[in-house]
Amino acid sequence: MTETTPGSAARFPFFNESTTPAGGEGWESMYPYYLVPSEETTEHENAQFWFADTMHWSRGCHPFDSIGAEAVYLGVGTFSTRIFALPVSLGLDVRVVNGYVYISPLGVEDPARIQERVAIFQERAGYYYANWDELYGKWKTKMEGAIDSLRTIEFPRLTEYDPAEVVMEARGRSSAMAVIENYHRLIDEFFSIWQYHFEFLNLGYGGYITFFQFCKQAFPLISEQSISRMVAGVDVLAFRPDDELRKLAALSHELDLNPIIAGDSGPDAILAALAETTNGRTWLAEFEAAKDPWFNYFAEYGFTHDQETWASDLSIPLQGISRYAVKIANGEDISRPIERLREERDEIVDEYRALLTGDEARQFDELLGLARKVFPYIEEHNIYVEHWSHKVFWEKAWDLARFLVDAGFLDTAGDMFYLNRFELDMALFDVVDSWAIGVPARGKKRWQAEIARRRPIVAALQAASAPPAYGIPPQQVTDPFAVMNYGVTTERVQDWLGASDGATDKLNGIPGSLGIVEGPVRVLRSEKDLPLLQPGEILVAPITAPSWAAAFAVATGVITDIGGMMCHAAIVCREYGIPAVVGTGFATARLTTGQRVRIDGKAGTVVVLEPALETETATEAAPAVR
Amino acid sequence: MYIHEFSDPGCQDVREVGGKAAGLAQMTAAGLPVAPGFAITAAAYRSYLQTDGLQEFTRGVLDALGSGRDQTAFDDADRTISERLTGVPLPEAIANAIRAAYAKLCVDTGVDNIAVAVRSSATAEDSVGASFAGEFETWVDIVGADAVLEYVHKCYVSVFAGRVLSYLAEKEIDPHAIEMAVVIQKTVRARAAGVMFTLSPTSGDRSKIVMEASWGLGLSVVGGEVTPDRFVVDKVGLGIADRTLGNKIIEYRRGDAPVEVPAERRELLCLQDDEVVALATLGKKLERMHQAPQDIEFAVDEELPAGSNLILLQCRPETVWSNAVRKPAFDAGAGMMSWITGSISGATAVPAHTHDASHRH
């Protein structure tokens, strides 16, 4: 264990010093052993710096849902460590602590090993940069193939006798074998998809960071927003779902359907009412056409089994449409001015370019070209992975859960997610095997008791929020990906360390999107609370996803717990011109709905203008250990 | 031709009116706001020195110095020459031209007996490549034609000041190669004034415009007698990136002596946001005109209405950063893959040019 001498930098608690929220005791037993801190790995864990990945898991995760933490960090690791050999970065180590996912960047320090990795990286990454567009084309094909493959997964129900085709087609094996096989395929495809995710991501960031560093060198005081505005794609896939809502809102206005669509009778009643008129049917046809694939869109990032997509909860897109429709009715122009945005972007680029000459100007051109080449992937890959793939993955997972209910093994489908993927594999085998033998499943009572034990544990974990970090903070956060994607910078880490010193009137974060705004906040812990957001309020959330865009039409500002200037909240806020401060670490814990704050999207600060009504200290962050 | 108004095309002839006046004329021609006024040309100075054998006299005194090149010798020469020059008034033709130009300035600005600044705008034969910035004096708040003539006369005499003679000797410049054009310009009644660089003087960042300003005339800023307010503006997009309140303890309401700034006004920024943006817009325009970063002095005139109260006093090329060799972020000889490798390896690029960015006005 590393000693912290008096006067040296403070550290965060170690994992073995963490406090489990009341009722959450015993959480360790729910996850695969390697995701849980252990005695065998304590020395390593206590030497590392771990920060909460609330970007992907904003709540404590169910045992089954921890598969995402495995898949994501398997993907990062293989591509960083083994495939492209990033010179100074290995993968991100991962642990689940009190249900929350924590990650830790691992660096390479041995100069000889770095040199070796440089050579491999330049050759391998060079191949990708040189053939980017062609390989990205292939990537889309691979992803579409993986999604299609997921779609073919079925869990045929167990019947008293196997279907006659087994005999007539002389298959020679039971249709029930497909249950186990398809469960494995479901898991394997999910891991594959997360491999593909990282095939391009770090290379994309690498291209972007290089342009970024060029700009920081050429213009030492340039703001991060100015750089990202030069690169920003204006017309990318990421904005399509929201664009669809705007189109449907415009059509609703045109066909005089606003009174129906803005109704609060629920999606079924609204759709039924629309089906009664000619105009309504015209609109419904467009609505149906937009649904697939554009409503296959999680309100967050789709890492938990209980998240809704727009398609599964039509009240989300309908609410967005209705919000836009009201704006149109008020005479507002809600169209995204693509032409104007593009012209603005080009003007900014021209002006900066004009300040450079010679080699600098040539490098600027080359690196801007590189950044623009890689940027579409950075903006678009979520649609394929986190939204389209995850939607099918969870659909199939739920189908499996219903299979277990139909087999009489579980009481309700949701119970399945209290088992981790290995436990589920055992249980499934038990179900199929017991069916084949002709006995009741041997583990039914055992697993139901375990699920009953876990239910209150998960509830307790989810009721608590995650401390932003554990372990020993680095002197400098140098991992460019931690900085770019998660917003974990040296300053942020220092803020987190100082957060228990009682300075509660100010939060520091990453400047996400320009502008200063004052107003009452609305703290939302989940997308299900989105309808509560009132016009003029500042949205406070652990993380926001692009699919929250319609809410941005209502919010006057956005504050998140995690995220860097490249996170989606920042990208989308810049797009919509709303001030945003991301990566504050504590906003959802510190702020209470109704409190007035002033956010400065340029300085990255949130100033609390009036104290919370209740005097409860909202922060559940672990105090720094000094 | 003894007089050029700033708007005369002839006023852009740097050889005849000196750099200061030519700069003001260029700015006027470009529609940039300068305090109204005119230049008295080098021809007037030449013609003065040809009066009563003055030039022969000065040449005689200087030649007599021989190898006696110490400060005492220069000061003696100064005394001898200035005694003689002071006794010889400006020729009638020149004096009349100046009186007429001053009268016209009063009419044009609508101010009787307008207070003006008399500023030396030295020029030199083409063979002399030196700059005389800071060598010659400026007098402000000169009121009435007689006083103007008196200070123009002083300006002529100042060419032979001991301090100047020793400076010229050091540079091996014949004092007779110098010709003194003079700028006569409305004294700016500065509510606030300061200096603007069209790059960041501390980092060399060309995408920023940085201004420092304080209450009253710019003397307090240039002389370092106050900590001015500091504003940083993005050259692209013209957003104000930073405002820092200074410590503005004194101000020059007139050119003579400073007065204390009342406590409540020290706490206020001396420029409004719209003024900062308007000034930055002017700075950007000047930089484009000159195709290089500029060092600009400005004032906000309290006698003039808002919207036309910003006055540019001076504009010259920035020299500290502009002359530094600029290296791109990455080795231009290496390929893009090596740039990317460096970037993702957290090798933070070291600024290619770091030096003390101190500067003089």
From TrEMBL, chain A:
Pfam families: PEP-utilizers. PANTHER family: PHOSPHOENOLPYRUVATE SYNTHASE-RELATED (PTHR43615), PPDK_N DOMAIN-CONTAINING PROTEIN (PTHR43615:SF1). Residues 534-604 form the PEP-utilising enzyme mobile domain. This is PEP-utilizing enzyme.
From TrEMBL, chain B:
SUPFAM superfamilies: Glutathione synthetase ATP-binding domain-like (SSF56059). InterPro entries: ATP_grasp_subdomain_1, PEP_synth, PPDK_AMP/ATP-bd. Keywords: ATP-binding, Kinase, Magnesium, Metal-binding, Nucleotide-binding, Transferase. It catalyses: pyruvate + ATP + H2O = phosphoenolpyruvate + AMP + phosphate + 2 H(+). It comes from the Bacteria. Its EC number is 2.7.9.2. Catalyzes the phosphorylation of pyruvate to phosphoenolpyruvate. This is Phosphoenolpyruvate synthase.
